[in-house]
Amino acid sequence: MSRKLGIIGIGHVGSTVAHQVVATGLADDLVLIDTNEAKVTADALDFEDARANLPYHTNVYVNDYAELKDADVIISALGKIDLQENKNDDRFAELPFTSKQVVEVAKKIKESGFHGILVAITNPVDVITSIYQQVTGLPKNHVLGTGTLLDSSRMKRSVAKKLKIDPRSVVGYNLGEHGNSQFTAWSTVRVLGKSIAEIASKNHLDLDAINDEAKHGGFTVFRGKKYTNYGIASAAVRLYSAIVSDAETELPVSNYRAEYGSYLSYPAIVGRDGILAQLQLDLTKEELEKLQVSANFIKDKYAESMAKE
């Protein structure tokens, strides 16, 4: 069975996702859509030029929404990252631009007859994921965002560096908003066969500092090169791969949690039908309070955004 992926927004992130997919053969058909016709056409030609030297063949289509009808997955990577310049590390700086763009894109996705899984990277991702679901009318379990999959990776990187181990050896999650109200749920973090609390005491780890690193790591990268791409692209491709391979993988992604009435990041089982099952973590009272604050913030921002449409 062929695998078909659509990517909407071929900027720094979208093009990096596309390159990783083409280079690793994760899609047989790739649909690239962007308002910058010259850029998206050039990227498509660049991929075609690479084809003779790659071990996989990927068919590439450009700016054709009709091609999305039978796509397995669409990844939304549209955005305007320069709006975050001098905005005090706030992903909501992009919302006035992205919310309008996403409503228009979502209408075109719906008109195409697309009935697959929609994955949002576009910031602020939890609110944007909510808008996509509302406008497309797709089932809630078929619309999800990368959420704190990347933030959890940043936390693992920070812990692993301090302990001089591979970040894949750290287990645990950042939860809530992919933004400033997120937090590391330390009760979920285990490393070296023990809880992080035990390891932190023995190794003098500053968990508050690590939490801040995970929360603000993207802005450290942004200040260095004025965009981020590799970390978020890797998270998006991992999520896409879990979907098309029906991997039934546990991932902390933005998914609709009925008890909070909102999209937010919380671990779920992901496969070909999107969110297959939702986990129930045994969080501390403090963590539950933080999660509620994050959920309320996302809901408020979503309501504000939709009121302007």
SSE topology:
Blueprint: E1 4-8, H1 12-24, E2 29-33, H2 37-50, E3 59-62, E4 73-76, H3 95-112, E5 117-120, H4 125-136, E6 143-145, H5 149-163, E7 170-175, E8 183-191, E9 194-195, H6 196-203, H7 207-225, H8 230-244, E10 249-257, E11 262-271, E12 274-278, H9 285-307
Parallel strand pairs: 1-2, 1-4, 2-3, 4-5, 5-6
Antiparallel strand pairs: 7-8, 8-9, 10-11, 11-12
Helix pairs in contact: 1-8, 3-4, 4-9, 5-7
Q: What key phrases describe this protein's structure?
A:
44% helix; six-stranded parallel sheet; three-stranded antiparallel sheet; 9 helices; alpha/beta; 309 residues
Plain-language structure description:
The protein is α/β, with parallel strands linked by helices and 309 residues long. The protein has nine helices and twelve strands. The longest helix is centred in the last third of the chain and has 23 residues, at 285-307. The radius of gyration is 19 Å and the shape is globular. The protein starts with a strand and ends with a helix. The mean pLDDT is 94.
Helical fraction equals: 40-55%
Number of strands: 12
Strand arrangement within the widest β-sheet reads: 3-2-1-4-5-6
Which regions contain 5 or more consecutive residues with pLDDT less than 50?
none
Structural class, please? alpha/beta
Principal-axis shape equals globular
Distance between the termini: 39 Å
SSE order in H/E notation? EHEHEEHEHEHEEEHHHEEEH
* Percentage of β-strand residues: 15-25%
Count of runs of 4 or more consecutive helical residues? 9
The biggest beta sheet reads: 6 strands, parallel
Overall residue-averaged pLDDT value: 94
Radius of gyration: 19 Å
